[in-house]
């Protein structure tokens, strides 16, 4: 999990935008590394959902397509490079209780069944 500390502190799954020329899977590896400093292996796609949210950095409302994966942690090779992010290691029940995004919680609940 990622703890994002800004105007509001939120626990999130690592994530972000898919850059030009990048696949969602490539973005997953990049975002996990940037936000947690970890390398991951064997990612498996669980699904996707739409999220409508205000993006303060861009001063606009956006529709995001969130691709959800489960993966195995390999090792932490660095500290997070994304500003105001920290790595959290939580149990499934802890994560379900504090994930800020209801879509993330739904996919975690489904995965745990």
Q: Which secondary structure elements does this structure contain, and how are they paired or packed?
A:
Layout (H helix, E strand, L loop, with lengths): L1 E4 L3 E4 L11 H13 L1 E18 L4 E17 L8 E3 L4 H7 L3 H11 L1
Helix pairs in contact: 2-3
Verbal overview:
The structure is a single chain. By secondary structure, the chain is of the alpha+beta class. It is 27% helix and 41% strand. The chain is built from 3 helices and 5 strands. The strands form 2 sheets. It has a 3-stranded antiparallel β-sheet, with no helix packed on it. Strands 3-4 form a two-stranded antiparallel sheet. Strand 1 and strand 2 form a beta hairpin. Helix 2 (92-98) packs antiparallel against helix 3. The model has no long low-confidence stretch (mean pLDDT 93).
H/I helix tally: 3
How far the N terminus sits from the C terminus, by CA atoms, comes to 19 Å
Radius of gyration: 14 Å
Strand content: 35-45%
| Helical content band | 25-40%
Order of helices and strands: EEHEEEHH
Biggest sheet descriptor: 3 strands, antiparallel
* Arithmetic mean of pLDDT: 93
Q: How many strands appear in the DSSP assignment? A: 5
Overall 3D form: globular
Low-confidence stretches: none
Structural class: alpha+beta
Strand order of the largest sheet: 2-1-5
């Amino acid at each position: 999990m990622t703890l994002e500390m800004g105007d509001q502190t939120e626990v999130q799954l690592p994530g972000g935008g898919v850059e030009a020329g990048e696949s969602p899977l490539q973005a997953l590896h990049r975002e996990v590394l940037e936000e947690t400093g970890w390398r991951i292996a064997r990612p498996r796609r669980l699904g996707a959902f739409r999220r409508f949210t205000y993006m303060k950095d861009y001063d606009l409302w956006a529709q995001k397509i969130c691709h959800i994966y489960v993966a195995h942690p390999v090792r932490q090779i660095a500290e997070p490079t994304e500003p105001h992010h920290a790595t959290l290691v939580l149990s499934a029940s802890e994560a379900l209780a504090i994930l800020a995004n209801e879509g993330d919680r739904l996919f975690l609940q489904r995965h745990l069944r």
